[in-house]
Amino acid sequence: MNLSTPLARPSLHDELVTRLREAVVEGVLEPGSKIPERELCENLGVSRTPLREALKVLASEGLVVLEPNRGARISPITMEELEAAFPVIAVLEGLAGELACARATDAEIAAIVARHDDMFRAFDAGDRPSYFKANRDIHAALFSAARNPVLEQHYAMLSARVARARLLANVSDTRWAEAVAEHRDIVEAVAERDGARLGALLEMHLNNKLASLKKSAG
């Protein structure tokens, strides 16, 4: 995530929130670290006021902790939060998969399959940033194809808070390879519109990520 290119003005607030959120999710701004407001203002070409308004949005999402008279910090990732959130997200993703298989257009199914191909090529090249970008696109596409705004809204509320951990779950080469193998089954179920199988695979995929995180945490 690039935090050194000035932002365009027409949608300054939205772009700033998006840029900062992605920086937190991708680990550019590390958990527990103090947010360098002056540096960010200079790099992004914004004043303190819009930056702080954007930080308030991230604070409402649980990504940032605002400290009175002390600035702001990136919220830490706790195992307690992950253990509470991951099972819920797993159920939401499983439901989204089932609905997507029933409601997606042929073009949407083809796009999800194609994005999987992109993700697999990134894995073969050892390109983690491109892999994770494709991975996020795939999950977002499934929720979009599910045609359920309430489901999508609840997922959005939780996903940003654990997205950082989802990246950490694939930090080892072994777990990364396992995740890819799981996605090969997932894309097969998508292509076949097998909603029941896809739902179960997506739930298992998320639960395996949580198990990996718990193992790495000791």
Chain-wise SSE layout:
Layout: H1 12-25, H2 37-44, H3 48-60, E1 64-67, E2 71-74, H4 79-103, H5 106-125, H6 128-145, H7 149-169, H8 173-191, H9 195-216
Antiparallel strand pairs: 1-2
Helix pairs in contact: 1-3, 4-6, 4-7, 4-9, 5-6, 5-8, 7-9, 8-9
Task: Provide a descriptive summary of the structure in words.
There is one protein chain. With 218 residues, the protein is mainly α. It has 2 domains: 12-74, Winged helix-like DNA-binding domain superfamily/Winged helix DNA-binding domain (Arc Repressor Mutant, subunit A); 79-216, GntR ligand-binding domain-like (Four Helix Bundle (Hemerythrin (Met), subunit A)). It contains 9 helices and 2 strands, in the order H-H-H-E-E-H-H-H-H-H-H. It has helices spanning 12-25, 37-44, 48-60, 79-103, 106-125, 128-145, 149-169, 173-191, 195-216, and strands at residues 64-67, 71-74. It has a two-stranded antiparallel ribbon with strand order 1-2. Helix 4 packs across helix 7 (149-169) and helix 4 runs antiparallel to helix 9. The longest helix has 25 residues, at 79-103. The radius of gyration is 18 Å and the shape is globular. The model has no long low-confidence stretch (mean pLDDT 90). GO terms for molecular function: DNA binding; DNA-binding transcription factor activity.
